[in-house]
Design a protein that fits this description.
single chain; mainly alpha; 6 helices; elongated
Protein backbone atom coordinates (compact mmCIF):
# COMPACT_ATOMS: atom_id res chain seq x y z
CA UNK A 1 0.00 0.00 0.00
CA UNK A 2 1.39 3.38 -0.94
CA UNK A 3 2.13 5.99 1.72
CA UNK A 4 -0.51 8.30 0.21
CA UNK A 5 -3.20 5.64 0.61
CA UNK A 6 -2.18 5.04 4.20
CA UNK A 7 -2.36 8.75 4.97
CA UNK A 8 -5.73 9.00 3.23
CA UNK A 9 -7.06 6.03 5.20
CA UNK A 10 -5.87 7.50 8.50
CA UNK A 11 -7.41 10.88 7.72
CA UNK A 12 -10.69 9.26 6.69
CA UNK A 13 -10.73 7.34 9.97
CA UNK A 14 -10.14 10.52 11.96
CA UNK A 15 -12.93 12.34 10.15
CA UNK A 16 -15.31 9.43 10.74
CA UNK A 17 -14.36 9.14 14.41
CA UNK A 18 -14.81 12.85 15.06
CA UNK A 19 -18.19 12.77 13.31
CA UNK A 20 -19.33 9.84 15.44
CA UNK A 21 -18.38 11.69 18.62
CA UNK A 22 -20.04 14.86 17.47
CA UNK A 23 -23.33 13.03 17.05
CA UNK A 24 -23.43 11.41 20.50
CA UNK A 25 -26.71 11.94 22.26
CA UNK A 26 -26.75 14.44 25.08
CA UNK A 27 -27.45 11.73 27.65
CA UNK A 28 -24.17 10.07 26.65
CA UNK A 29 -22.08 13.23 27.02
CA UNK A 30 -22.37 13.55 30.78
CA UNK A 31 -23.84 11.68 33.75
CA UNK A 32 -25.72 14.88 34.55
CA UNK A 33 -27.53 14.88 31.20
CA UNK A 34 -28.46 11.23 31.70
CA UNK A 35 -29.92 12.15 35.12
CA UNK A 36 -31.70 15.15 33.60
CA UNK A 37 -33.27 12.87 30.98
CA UNK A 38 -34.39 10.40 33.66
CA UNK A 39 -36.04 13.11 35.75
CA UNK A 40 -37.63 14.72 32.69
CA UNK A 41 -39.14 11.34 31.74
CA UNK A 42 -40.48 11.02 35.29
CA UNK A 43 -41.95 14.53 34.99
CA UNK A 44 -43.78 13.48 31.82
CA UNK A 45 -45.10 10.35 33.53
CA UNK A 46 -46.35 12.42 36.49
CA UNK A 47 -48.01 14.87 34.12
CA UNK A 48 -49.79 12.08 32.28
CA UNK A 49 -51.16 10.94 35.64
CA UNK A 50 -52.37 14.47 36.41
CA UNK A 51 -49.90 15.05 39.24
CA UNK A 52 -48.88 18.69 38.85
CA UNK A 53 -46.77 18.84 42.02
CA UNK A 54 -44.80 15.72 41.08
CA UNK A 55 -44.35 17.00 37.54
CA UNK A 56 -42.90 20.28 38.83
CA UNK A 57 -40.63 18.54 41.34
CA UNK A 58 -39.24 16.13 38.73
CA UNK A 59 -38.82 18.92 36.16
CA UNK A 60 -36.90 20.96 38.75
CA UNK A 61 -34.59 17.99 39.38
CA UNK A 62 -34.11 17.58 35.63
CA UNK A 63 -33.36 21.29 35.28
CA UNK A 64 -30.84 21.17 38.13
CA UNK A 65 -28.96 18.30 36.48
CA UNK A 66 -29.09 19.97 33.06
CA UNK A 67 -27.58 23.10 34.63
CA UNK A 68 -24.77 20.99 36.10
CA UNK A 69 -24.17 19.50 32.66
CA UNK A 70 -24.12 22.93 31.03
CA UNK A 71 -21.15 23.83 33.24
CA UNK A 72 -19.20 20.93 31.74
CA UNK A 73 -20.04 21.50 28.06
CA UNK A 74 -22.20 23.69 25.88
CA UNK A 75 -24.74 22.57 23.33
CA UNK A 76 -27.60 24.27 21.56
CA UNK A 77 -29.85 21.31 22.37
CA UNK A 78 -28.91 21.44 26.05
CA UNK A 79 -29.90 25.10 26.12
CA UNK A 80 -33.22 24.25 24.45
CA UNK A 81 -33.82 21.47 27.00
CA UNK A 82 -33.19 23.94 29.83
CA UNK A 83 -35.69 26.36 28.30
CA UNK A 84 -38.34 23.64 27.94
CA UNK A 85 -37.81 22.46 31.51
CA UNK A 86 -38.19 26.04 32.76
CA UNK A 87 -41.41 26.36 30.79
CA UNK A 88 -42.66 23.02 32.16
CA UNK A 89 -41.98 24.21 35.71
CA UNK A 90 -43.67 27.57 35.19
CA UNK A 91 -46.79 26.15 33.53
CA UNK A 92 -46.97 23.27 36.00
CA UNK A 93 -46.96 25.71 38.90
CA UNK A 94 -49.87 27.52 37.24
CA UNK A 95 -51.78 24.22 37.11
CA UNK A 96 -51.67 23.81 33.32
CA UNK A 97 -50.71 20.16 33.42
CA UNK A 98 -51.26 19.46 29.72
CA UNK A 99 -48.92 22.24 28.58
CA UNK A 100 -46.39 21.43 31.30
CA UNK A 101 -46.38 17.79 30.25
CA UNK A 102 -45.88 18.78 26.61
CA UNK A 103 -42.95 21.04 27.56
CA UNK A 104 -41.40 18.28 29.66
CA UNK A 105 -41.84 15.88 26.73
CA UNK A 106 -40.08 18.38 24.47
CA UNK A 107 -37.18 18.41 26.94
CA UNK A 108 -37.09 14.60 26.89
CA UNK A 109 -37.00 14.63 23.11
CA UNK A 110 -34.12 17.09 23.05
CA UNK A 111 -32.13 15.41 25.83
CA UNK A 112 -32.39 12.08 24.04
CA UNK A 113 -31.43 13.52 20.65
CA UNK A 114 -28.04 13.56 18.99
CA UNK A 115 -26.42 16.94 18.67
CA UNK A 116 -22.89 18.19 18.30
CA UNK A 117 -21.24 20.14 21.08
CA UNK A 118 -20.90 23.72 19.93
CA UNK A 119 -17.71 25.34 21.23
CA UNK A 120 -18.94 28.72 19.92
CA UNK A 121 -21.82 28.95 22.39
CA UNK A 122 -21.25 30.95 25.56
Amino acid sequence: MSPMRIIAAVLAGLVFASGAYAQMSLKDQSPDTAKALKFAEEAVAAGKQGQADALVAKAEEAQKNAIYASKAFTSYNLQIALERLGEAIATGKKGDIATATAKAQAAVDVLGSSAPVDPNLP
